Amino acid sequence: MNGRVIADRYELATVIGQGGMGQVWTAYDRRLDRRVAVKLLRPDRMAGTEGADEMRRRFVRECRVTAQVDHRGLVTVHDAGSDGEELYLVMQYVEGADLADHLAENDPYPWPWAVSVAAQLCSVLSAVHAVPIVHRDLKPRNVMVRPDGSVLVLDLGVASVLDTDTTRLTRTGSPIGSPAYMAPEQAMGGAVGPYTDLYALGVLLHELLVGEVPFAGSTALGVLHRHLYEPPVPVRQLRPEVPRPLEELVLRLMAKDPLHRLADAQEAYQALAPLLPLPGTTTGGAAGPALGPMNPTRPFLLPHAPWPDRAATAAQPAPVPATALLGPPPEAPSGPDVAEAVEEVKRLLDQGGITQAVDLLGSILPAAAAEHGERSTVVRTLRRQYAATLMDDGQYRRALPELRHLAEDYAMESGPQAARRVLRFQYDAAQCLEQLGEAVAALAEYRALLPRFEGYPDDPTTPLDIRRRIGHLLLSLGDRQAAHDTLVALLHDAERLHGPHHPLPAEIRHTLQWLGQVRA
C-alpha cells in the first residue's frame, strides 16, 4: 500500500503498469467509495528536461481527447488534473487479463476467439478514428479481456490527436510504437492514419491465430526491415483449420501499401461478421464453452447477458440523466450578449478551456449572423476563431467545412489581403485532410498550394513546411524514392534559411538517416 492521496481524494495503492508517460496505480476514490486506476506523469520525466513542456502538453491532450470518446471498448475517464508537480488521469478500474497473457494461457488460441477479439477491436477503432485519433501502438499488452469476454483497448497515451506532431519522429530519430506491430509507413516516419492501426490489427490477428508475430528479429531495425520488404506467411500454412476468408483478411490488413488495405475498421468488421459465432448457442464448438470466464465469443453467443450468470441483484435507483445535472443547454446569445460571450471565449481560451470555447463559439455564430449579417466583420472574425479553435481542439472533421466556407467567402473579394487569407484557409484545410488520414487528397492540395505560397517571398517558412508534409505523405503512401528526393532538396533549403542546428533540418536529417538505414 502506498498511502499517498492525490488531489485530496484518490488514495494510491499498488502499481499495476509502467509506460512512457508514467505509472498506473490502483487507487481508492474516497468521495465515491470505489476503486479506480490513476495514471501519473513521473516527476523525473518532467523536471530538468528539454521536453517537459511537450510531455505536459501530450498528457493534457491525452486526458481531454480520451474523455471525448464514448465507447464500451474504451476505459472510461473519470477525472484529470494536477497535484503538485504531477499530472494525473483517473480512469475506471478494470478486472481481467491483458490479451498477451490470455493468449499464453489459451495456446493454441481457438480461431473463433481470434475473430471475436478482432471484431470487438474493429468497433473500438471505428470510434476512435472518427475523432480522429490514431492509436499507433495497438498490441496485445494494450488490450484487456474482461471476465465476461468483452475487450477493452488501453492506453491512448502514445496515441494522440492527429496533429502536426503525428508525422514526426521522436527526438531520438525513432518512430513511436512497437516494432513488432508497426506499419511500414510508421516505421519510415511517414504520416500515420487509421490505415496504420489496421495494419497493427492484422499483425495482432496473425499472432492470435499462429501464436507468434509474423516478423521477429534480434534488433528493432531488423524487424522493421522485414515489415517493409517481406510478405507475411499465410496463416493457413501454419494452421490449416483457419477459414480461408480469415487468412485473406489478415493478408489485406497487412498490405505494405496503405492504399491496398481495407478502407476502414467498419469494412474489417464486415469481413469478420460472417465468421462470428451465432447468438443463442450454448456451447462455442471450436470456441470452447460459451459460459466460461474470459471467453471472447461470449458477447456474440449471449449478447447483453449478465455476468456472472446469476439472478439480478436488488434494483438500483435509476441514474440521473447528465442533462439534469448540467442544467438546460445555454441559449444562443443575441444582441449585446454576443459581446459578452466573446469576452467569455477569450477568458476560456486564456485558461485552456478549449472545448468550452468551441461550444460557446458555435452557439454565438447563428445569433451574430442574424444580428450583423453573414459576411459582416463580426461574423467573419468569430468564424475564423471558431475554425482555429476547432483545430486547436483536435476536431479536424468539424474544422474542415468551416475552413472551406471561409475560403469560398473571401474568394469573392479582390485584393492581395483577401487572396492571402484564402490561401491560408486552404492550407489549414489541407492540414485537416492530412490529420483525418486522407493522404492522397492532402498530398494533392499541398502540391497545388506550394507554388502559390512560393510566390510570397516575405513568407519563406510556410513553403518549407508544405514540402516537409509532402515528403512525409509520400512516405506514408509508399513512394520512398520520391520522399527521399523531396526531403534531400528540402534539407538543403532549410539549412540555407535556418542554419544546420535549427529543429527543422535536424528533423529532416533524422528522417533521411532512418530512411537510409532501413533501405540499406
Please, could you describe this protein's structure?
This protein is an alpha+beta fold and 520 residues long. It folds into four domains: 5-92, 2-Layer Sandwich (Phosphorylase Kinase, domain 1); 97-301, Transferase(Phosphotransferase) domain 1 (Transferase(Phosphotransferase), domain 1, Orthogonal Bundle), CATH 1.10.510.10; 330-427, Serine Threonine Protein Phosphatase 5, Tetratricopeptide repeat (Alpha Horseshoe), CATH 1.25.40.10; 437-520, Serine Threonine Protein Phosphatase 5, Tetratricopeptide repeat, CATH 1.25.40. It is 49% helix and 10% strand. The protein has helices at residues 52-68, 99-105, 111-129, 184-187, 194-210, 220-229, 244-253, 265-272, 298-301, 322-326, 337-350, 354-372, 377-392, 396-411, 416-435, 439-453, 461-476, 480-498, 503-519, and strands spanning 5-6, 10-19, 22-29, 34-41, 77-83, 86-92, 97-98, 143-145, 151-153. The chain has a six-stranded antiparallel β-sheet with strand order 1-2-3-4-6-5, with helices on one face. Helix 3 packs antiparallel against helix 5, helix 13 (377-392) packs antiparallel against helix 14 and helix 16 runs antiparallel to helix 17 (461-476). The longest helix is centred in the C-terminal third of the chain and has 20 residues, at 416-435. The chain is globular. The termini are far apart.
Give the tags.
6-stranded antiparallel sheet; 520 residues; Transferase(Phosphotransferase), domain 1; alpha+beta; 4 domains; Phosphorylase Kinase, domain 1
